[in-house]
Amino acid sequence: PFFSVADIRRTFLDFFAQRGHTVVPSSPLVPGNDPTLMFTNSGMVQFKDVFLGTDRRPYVRAASVQACLRAGGKHNDLENVGYTARHHTFFEMLGNWSFGDYFKRESLKWAWELLTEVYKLPAERLWATVYIDDDEAYDVWTKEIGLPPERVVRIGDNKGGKYQSDNFWMMADTGPCGPCSEIFYDHGPEVPGGPPGSPDADGDRYIEIWNNVFMQFDMQPDGSVRPLPAPCVDTGMGLERLAAILQGVHSNYEIDLFRTLIAAAARETGASDRDSPSLRVIADHIRATAFLVADGVIPSNEGRGYVQRRIIRRAIRHGYKLGRTAPFFHKLVPDLVALMGEAYPNLAAQAPRVMEVLRAEEERFYETLAHGMEILDVALAGGQTVLPGEVAFKLHDTYGFPLDLTHDVCRERGVGVDVAGFEAAMERQKAQARAAGKFKMERVLDYAGPANAFVGYDELQAAAKVV
Ligand code: ATP
Ligand code: MG
Ligand code: MG
Ligand code: MG
């Protein structure tokens, strides 16, 4: 059966409401009062303190559809967008939780029931993974649910260290964590990629759709774990990935919502090739940046605001690549609101402000973008395989090209960036500014103007490092 994105959301929440779960609204993309986390990267974020036992709720079972952003910190998919069929920066996560109530058995059985009996996914296309020594979850899959053992894969310390496995989920470097069991869907042999645990598992054939995390520990800064007050369940399923399956397509970018957004991006950029990766990037980035503005994040040169600026500028650069030389990106906001405004009323309410913030950032970057691209072209005209760090720094310092944007352009051309050289150039400028004295430094900042404002190395580091 065909399920629209709206059908999928409603069906999920109804299923868990019928099983005693309280339906909770999506929380903002900026987590309240949590320095360990840059953005809400999963549905459990608003329940972090409930897991830790320092907050209580009037319910022990909850379900939600959570707006998530993975563009910084521990879970960062920015570099995957435009390259895989399954990653977004902004996406919606369907989730259900038990706070010291049910555990592995109920969680996995309900997941199976919902997928195979309600959404009616063909059981023979589903695979599961469990944490290497989790015999309990393994037995639920093989003995109670009846999944053939060939399709239940134990995944362990494959990335070095006990807690670095794909099947040990962590919100951030510290905080709630635990072993998990993931459900995969096989899109079929026409799509490249191998089953979970195999060397080519990173393809788009076997796609991870649902993670069931058995929250049991609180990770400490020194890497040791403490048990949580009670074992909990935390699940997360990507709405767009499920939609792709239910709509019979192999890519998230071909679902109803993304087709419409990509058509809007083609309209505004004049692109004729609907399969252009740039259109996918623009469609992804309008969601991320519009929701960020709606949740109070405006472009700036540090922290969350700098991530916001980087995402917007990447989108603009892709528009430029498609031939745009004037602001276009903000014009996608009404299209987005038409698609998502009902589910996210705050986005609809903030739409005029969102457009204004995006338009202002576009105007600012268009002042320097073309010139910066020329400099880049000249620097690479001799067939270089690495862009000199000095050039990357000049692009950053004078033309407002965040380093990751320069990387993005170079990657398309199969060219690397001399990051050490970039950092050295940044250091040299800082030292010169220090030597010239504080007064002069302020004048430099002043003179450079907002588009070219100097971003200190520390800030850049901070933006890259905050989890
Ligand atoms: P992947 O291995 O595919 O990157 P993940 O293991 O990082 O996914 P989890 O942290 O387990 O993902 O999140 C739970 C679910 O959220 C995933 O099973 C997937 O369906 C969905 N999801 C995760 N990251 C993204 C993303 N960038 N875009 C869309 N959906 C995502
Ligand atoms: Mg991931
Ligand atoms: Mg994974
Ligand atoms: Mg996962």
TrEMBL record:
Q: Does the keyword Coiled coil apply?
A: yes
What Gene Ontology terms describe what this protein does at the molecular function level? alanine-tRNA ligase activity; aminoacyl-tRNA deacylase activity; ATP binding; tRNA binding; zinc ion binding
Named cofactor requirement(s): Zn(2+)
Instruction: State the organism of origin.
Output: Tepidimonas charontis
Question: What is the name listed in the Swiss-Prot or TrEMBL entry for this protein?
Answer: Alanine--tRNA ligase
Top EC class, one word: ligase
Comment, domains: Consists of three domains; the N-terminal catalytic domain, the editing domain and the C-terminal C-Ala domain. The editing domain removes incorrectly charged amino acids, while the C-Ala domain, along with tRNA(Ala), serves as a bridge to cooperatively bring together the editing and aminoacylation centers thus stimulating deacylation of misacylated tRNAs.
Compartments reported by the entry: Cytoplasm
Briefly, what is this protein's role? Catalyzes the attachment of alanine to tRNA(Ala) in a two-step reaction: alanine is first activated by ATP to form Ala-AMP and then transferred to the acceptor end of tRNA(Ala). Also edits incorrectly charged Ser-tRNA(Ala) and Gly-tRNA(Ala) via its editing domain.
Establish whether keyword Protein biosynthesis is in the entry: yes
Q: Which reaction does it catalyse?
A: tRNA(Ala) + L-alanine + ATP = L-alanyl-tRNA(Ala) + AMP + diphosphate
What is the free-text note on the cofactor? Binds 1 zinc ion per subunit.
Domain (Alanyl-transfer RNA synthetases family profile) ranges: 3-467
The EC designation for this entry is 6.1.1.7
Query: Cellular component per GO?
Result: cytosol
